[in-house]
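Memo subject: From amino acid sequence to discrete backbone structure tokens
Keywords: amino acid chain, backbone geometry, structure tokens, three-dimensional fold.
Body of memo: The sequence and its backbone structure tokens, given next.
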Amino acid sequence: MSGTGGAMSGTAGGANLLALRSHNTALVLGLLRAAGDEGVSRLELAARTGLTPQAVSKITARLRMDGLAVQAGRRASTGGKPPTLLRLVPQARHAVGVHLDRDELRTVLVDLVGTVVGERSTPLNLGAGAQAVVEAVAREAEGLVTDVLPPSGSAGSGTPTAALAAAGSLLGLGVALPGPLDHTRGVLHRVTGFPEWDGFPLRDTLARRLGAPVVVDKDTNAAALGLAVGGESGSFSYLHLGTGLGAGLVIGGTVHRGPRTGAGEFGHQVIQLDGPPCTCGNRGCIEALCLGAVARGAYGEAARVLGEGAANLAGLLDIDLVLLGGRTVAAAPDAFADGVAAVLAARARREGGAEGAVPVRIAPGGARAVAEGAAQLLLAPLFGRPDH
């Protein structure tokens, strides 16, 4: 058929079918992002995606019309006409990432390549009720967007809805908070310690309030996605110890949420029968034991407890790496990294693993890692990630 072509061996698997236009566009956008300021030619895009040059020309023409791509000069000729290079325009689109912690609200504004161009944080009481929390998110999102992004038209009445609508480059908001929750529908379940949130449609409520697309996910999943987008490869676990404890799982480079988006409820594995009570209703949960030790200032004990849970996880999933994050880890990073690594090393010696212990590192990103990952919930689909 004229104008079509199958995927080439070793390419990203493009397809010249109208129904897959968004998929093909995502492939091209991903390559433009990877090329950086140096840019990439249309022929190179065709070779790497398996698309025909004609299909690539149509896609790049649309991207240029939408302001997402521009010419980046010409490459030196090796014979024939010098190829024109194209590059991504990072500032052409933005996304807001929101981290709703139990006692803090942090928002970031990032561009297409994930660079943070604005940030705000404010105290928050997640138990103050849905209306108060939704209004706090609206207020912070409005303030952040108004401070950084010029309006594309009239800002109207100055309400959050008008301010966000006026920012023509805004893709929407990614919101991350403690689970459990339903990522697909954006509905909260019994958030640990805050059972009153059970069944609240956070995604749809925020979308109506703000007049912008919203995606909701667990804080650990968002952070794990941000790490994967940022270059962490293979299979790893991100353990987040802050006001609670959870895990984000990346298996084979893809965030694993499970069929009911309930994977990663790491903090509520019981490791001590008849142990101290946990806010989830069980006793002897790793979260209760960890936070109890931290409250006593016993960071070494907390790290050993966290290490036992990490060793269980590593043994169950055969992961390549354990990454640690969250404010409690940030308060004593060496103690946690060394303590968790020691437990994993001892477990590896007992089991006689030929490859040695699973390595342990402090995750990059610091206090805004979850918020940045939340923004990737909006950006990832643009670049064809299957786990957004």
About this structure: The first strand starts at residue 40 and ends at 41.
